[in-house]
Amino acid sequence: MSDTLTVSTGGTTSVSTEELFGFAASLDSLAGDARDWAHQAAIARCLTEWSADAAPYGFAEAALTRARRSLDEVSDSAERLGSAVRQTADNYADSEARTRDTVGAMQAFAGFLFGAYLRNLVLGALPLLPTLALTALVLQQPPVRRALAVLGSGLAAELAEHPEVMNNPAFVHAVRGVVSAADDILMGFTGASLPMARFLGDEGIGLVGLETVASAVILLGGKHAFTATPVRTSPSGSERTVRPPRSLADAAARIPSSGAGKPQVTVETYASPTGGRSYAVYIAGTTDFGPNSDEPFDMASNLAALADSDAGSYTATLDAMERAGVQAGDPVHLFGHSQGGLVAARLAASGAFDTQSLVTFGSPSGQVPVPDSVLQVAVEHTEDLVPALGGAPLDGADGRDRTVVSRSVFDDAPPPGAESGSAHYMTEYEKTARLIDESADPRLAGLDEALAGIGAGAGVAQAFRAERVRSG
Known about the structure:
The chain is globular, with a radius of gyration of 28 Å. Helix 9 crosses helix 12 (about 300-305), helix 12 (about 300-305) packs parallel to helix 14 (about 340-350) and helix 13 (about 310-325) crosses helix 14. Helices cover about 50% and strands about 15% of the residues. The two termini are about 50 Å apart. The protein is an alpha/beta fold. The protein has 3 domains: about 20-100; about 105-225, no CATH class; about 230-410 and about 420-470, no CATH class. It is built from 17 helices and 10 strands.
């Protein structure tokens, strides 16, 4: 397991390791200490000159003078070197941003060409429609479906036996690229011209993007797979007295664990340091990966949340907040894992509440346009596939204030017995949260301030459980 954190800020600021900024912070500390020591040497020099009691130590005056000058030089040099380190990081950031833009443009172009190829392939296959219809009819027969299920389970078992495939950062990066280019593939498939695709896509006005693709998937899935349903939300257990989280690791540990029948949302109510009330909301990840689940935190809600549509998990969280007394405009702090982080990002983007901070763990929320006024920290593991399913993060104004903290869970390869999705487990993200608490990176200082501002004194926590209400 690696303990190295990499911090990036938005699409226009730096990407660098924690060690680099830790080195700059150490230089700043050294400069301050050297300045203090120089001041003390100057005071000692004055005492030997003007105090009769210190006259016997007059022989040290020349040495004290040299020490003061040397310490002043050390302080100035440390300050200059610290500034140079930060400037180097900024220069690297500019280069990295240009490289990312170039790679993104190449992915978009490749996606457009692939979509156009698929369109030509489909048009060329029109004479084969009777054969394709017969094939589809055969595939619906129970024996064929059972055979396909056996083949599918074999493939799943093969992937489970080789977690290094799913836990490979290169594979995760490739998936992120494909997801980011999905809108370009769609535009190419519809027959739009390349200039029109660039104008309507992420590179232009952003009218067609990941939300559009997710909406298309929902439509293709049909009403039986992705039908929106009412959600029933109710308290789970009794209220309990809590203290505000002392650290990010403390807050991460309060996110409900995913599981059938378990509560999915916890709301903590505190007296606000500025008067009134403030709230901390913790949202669990996906519980059921089937499309027709009774769980609102299912795959249907994942797609709906990506499409900024009617997600059952979003409705459940809003209901829980309302039952806990949260009103429009109240200050809230949002924490979420996986789908819970996506829901939290949508809540922050809605502007319905005075969102003070948003912290997500392993969430596909990079393209949700959260306002710059919200302190936003996304914690991601390089081997975690789920954040990649949200595509490349927003650049420019919409992503400027989104700080991403990433870590490699496996130094080289997954250890024997590791599961394919182990990098996504909340237990691993809690370890990363502890490393963030120990980090000296100045870009994470705002997170400490946000945590300190959650509440004053003891508060009340209430867990909530939500279920879909299906008719018939």
